[in-house]
Amino acid sequence: MSHSFSMATLLKFEGRFGKHLHRLFSNIEQQPEGQVFDLKESVARYAYDVISDLAFEKDLNTQGNPEANELPPIPDHILIGTMYGMVESLLPYSIRIGNKLPIPSLQKLLQSRKLLSQKASQYVNDAIEDHKAGEKETLLDNLLEAKDPSTGAPLTPAEVSSEAFAFLVAGAHTTSATLGLLFYHLLHNRYAAEKLTEELNANVPLYNDGGKEISYSGLESKLPYTMACIKESFRITPVFTMPLPRLVTDPNGVDINGFHIPQGTAVSMISQALHHDPQFWGGDHDQYIPERWLEDAISFNEIMPFGIGHRACIGRNIASINILKVLCALWRNFEIIPVDKYEKLEINSLGVDEKKGPLLCTVRKRQM
Ligand code: HEM
């Protein structure tokens, strides 16, 4: 299935990203000058719409109706998964017991999780009805056409539904939380903001100048400073901060840093610790400095916002396309002004981290 997530496959349906990006752009363009709005909420709606479109072929358009449409409770879903996952050996029991515990907040979480998964399987059933054999134009088409490599059997509707649901849960909140934090850093680091503006002005056309659809191909290599801004945001505030356990399978165990770890042990590395190791990043590891990626030619493999190895994030290319396209479209076309330019960053950590509270801004359209 991983070929469905390759850059080449994803770029074939780049128009799907473009449709939702255009709505994000228009919503922000329509903000009257000086009107305060929450940029974090705007990008969250974009991320939810684009990921659910990719996963279920459903245009939920939460961007189109911000008043009436509540964003679905994906963070609740992640929180409950993290709580249960903390003691994974107790999983079958904790689910059974959890369902019976008379704790209103837990029951509310479980209820919202149930509603979300019911909706997801409804969307998938609709898409299965509309799917034409051989069609491979979307992620869901690819799932419906996928075959088990050993048996040649297709995925069952329940398996398709659970995969598509996993894309939504794993993809929407991670993307929006990453974008929220990226914009926070840029809006609170004047030097980085100025250099980013310079690079984008020189390389990306304004929407008005015929650049409505920013094509992803070739964009990364034209924008080294922009890429450094994104990498530095991933480094300083990775959103996926849960431990990512791996089991030692070698019968002889492994030796890591002078410690012997026997077979059967679960070993975890937490991205936050790796990304803030002062021995590697230096005493200024808690400062947002995109230059460190350029001056020291550090490889992106030194950090692990998407995990590492066989179980690393399958949606990494989708995230990369979304983040770069959103940043280019908004930063190039609007001067974004934070309401509180001295706001201290606080993080909400519910398994997937995000900026606490809104990111209140005003915008002014750039003319050149
Ligand atoms: C900035 C956005 C994202 C971040 C930071 C992120 C991060 C991660 C991380 C750290 C993991 C665990 C990897 C490991 O265990 O080593 C993961 C797994 C996963 N991600 Fe993402 N992700 C993002 C976006 C997406 C998107 C857009 C999708 C799909 C549409 C997606 C789908 C998945 C799936 C299905 C898994 C489970 C893979 C497995 O267990 O084999 N992610 N992600």
Fold and architecture overview:
This protein has 368 residues and is mainly α. It has a single domain (2-244, 277-335, 346-365), classed as Cytochrome P450 (Cytochrome p450), CATH 1.10.630.10. The protein is built from 15 helices and nine strands. It has a three-stranded antiparallel sheet with strand order 1-9-6. It has a two-stranded antiparallel sheet with strand order 2-5. Strands 3-4 form a two-stranded antiparallel sheet. A hairpin with a 1-residue loop joins strand 7 and strand 8. The longest helix is centred in the middle third of the chain and has 31 residues, at 157-187. The protein is globular and about 60 Å long. The model has no long low-confidence stretch (mean pLDDT 87). It binds protoporphyrin IX containing FE. Protoporphyrin IX containing FE binds at residues 51, 166-167, 170-171, 174-175, 178, 239-240, 244, 305-308, 311-315, 318-319. GO terms for molecular function: heme binding; iron ion binding; monooxygenase activity; oxidoreductase activity, acting on paired donors, with incorporation or reduction of molecular oxygen. This is Cytochrome P450. It comes from Trichoderma guizhouense. Heme binds at residue 313.
